[in-house]
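lol ok so funny story. i was supposed to be doing the assay writeup but got distracted and ended up predicting the structure for this chain instead. priorities right. anyway since i did it might as well share w the group, maybe its usefull for someone
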Amino acid sequence: MSTFVNDTVEDAIKTPELDQPFEALGLKDDEYARIKEILGRRPTDAELTVYSVMWSEHCSYKSSKVHLRYFGETTTEEMASKILAGIGENAGVVDIGDGNAVTFRVESHNHPSFVEPHQGAATGVGGIVRDIMAMGARPIAVMDQLRFGALDNPDTQRVLPGVVDGISHYGNCLGLPNIGGETVFDDSYAGNPLVNALCVGTLKVEDLKLAFASGTGNKVILFGSRTGLDGIGGVSVLGSASFEEGEERKLPAVQVGDPFAEKVLIECCLELYKAGVVVGIQDLGGGGLACATSELAAAGDGGMRVNLDNVPLRAENMSAAEILASESQERMCAVVTPENVERFLEICAKWDVTCAEIGEVTDEKDRYVVVHNGEVVIDAPPSTIDEGPVYNRPVARPENQDELQLEGEIARPVDVEEIKAAWLKLVASPALASRAFITEQYDRYVRGNTVQAKNANAGVLRIDEETNRGVAISADASGRYTKLEPNTGAQLALAEAYRNVVSTGARPVAVTNCLNFGSPENAGVMWQFKEAVHGLADGSKLLGIPVSGGNVSFYNQTGDEPILPTPVVGVLGVLDNVEQSIGNVLPSEDNDLYLLGETFDEFGGSIWQQVSGAGLNGLPPVVDLLNEQRLADLFVGSDLFAASHDLSEGGLGQTLAELAIHADKGMDVDLSQIHPSLFTSLFAESASRIVVATNRGEELEKRAAELGVPVFKLGRTNDSAVIAVKGADVEFTVSVEELREAWTNTLPEAFGHAVGANAVVG
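and the output, tada:
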């Protein structure tokens, strides 16, 4: 038994004026006053800890709730009918047919990854995997969205190798393929990298589990790793703080992960589900046991009594507050009927998973009682812990937004040699260069159901081995576009993820998101956030695909300087037969190349604007979601395409280069019909465009015309290993080898000497 002397409820009643460190725990004066009002007394140390954790920005969404409601307001009945579990659950779940369901979600682990890159990123993967497990699903794949400071920034040299190593270590040890993602470099992320982890899981529709504690007398069982001192004040507190210089030393707040323990936990969970011994389940992530038990209690029809004396510990003399707030990894909480407890314990013993009965559901509605050392340390309404305050923060369009949207001058080469040099400079830029240095550290094909991953438009997975039914998943974002026009920027991220999925032949069915922004106490940031939410919600409604869930990450800034607003948008699509999915690699035999979609002079927020030194200004490309739908109508279920590659950052030039490099093919292309300016044809970043390879050009042109999709014949592939480009009045050639060399060397040259868990380079 602990020798720690608790601050009990009895003590709190006797010492009402005791000074408490609520500010250090992230609570405001009025929030502390509200807690005292709820309880009718001062909180105990444990209560103060639980409220501070649960009312943190990370756990309570107190600044974002008023805007996130718009997702519900814009979801039609038809859209909602596709969702088995949606916003508010651990992860969104979608019925994909034949009795199969897929769950997916993306979460942020930004601040812990800055403090301790390896463990921060690793536990980010572990946390999102447990979210998926909590739905009753088997995790089957991960993806990641990463953003770092400039390539040559010293801290990028510290953070990136550690983050990549953490992701690869945890994911590879779990045996989960990493099927895609994005890595972006920009000065704004220098002191605040973004590490957004996505996980996909599969389950049968009837096996869906939801997190709630109902049924008087049902037992609460904690299982998985023991509870220690790591991660106290971790994601819940770090996620609600901005960084000043030296904050990378907050090591004790970062959780430590054990992927092998999680792998066993996955199998144990799946057997528990199969045995039918679980009523509800909740993973322990941000907020630890405090979050898991209070959320379960709040979602149930009664109350809950928890005995911390039964919690398996790996540290001595832990206080009640420490046990509750610990974010030790690889832990789950289950609600089990009394008659199933014995079988539950047997299954845990079989997998050598530590477990303990720590509480039970009571008939005292909305009462949450926690005991430690035989003393009551918490007696509070769980609804008030779970709900938290709701703030309608000031929202104001930044004063410099009009100025920002004025497009400055950018270099527009017309000379052949200058255009060629610009092309090589772009493909070699940190924004567009090969990510193989990163992705080759991940296992993409473990489990044997990965159909597309390497350099793919979207990750494609087989879900049903008998029918070959599967899914395609993509996640995208552009902080540059969103900074210029947040509503459009969010829609462009949605459009790109949607288009990536469509270009595999999959039918988009659902959306998830991770909204990364600066401080909500900044009115300009809240304007960006509100606009992005509305853009994403309105866009999803127009496309008819529901937002199934998401995550908000605020306080992403260094000092007073926020990151680029970065709404990461994931789209899930369904393929009836993954064997018929459209790949992104040109076939060995020669094919005609077509460009679908129109090209405009759109360089605001573009990579050329960045690379050429023109900064960030102007307006982003126009987004037309009806055009994206027309592309979907053309691709879904079609057998016209031998290969496809969507256009996004870097424009047509980047797409042609990657197609040629991946297949080691040459091509003759005539861009004179694309745009009068050859430079614009190659490097503009207009949306709603895909390049396809086909030898059924007439059929394609006819079908595209029927659907209203603009179609332009570019030329044909060949075995010359040279791309010959013709414009209205200029032409030139570039060898595929020149492009490959420029594209492949950038990251190895920058990071080839920096490897390991927390590489520090001199």
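The radius of gyration is 26 Å. Residues 16 and 42 are 6 Å apart (CA to CA).
back to the writeup now i swear
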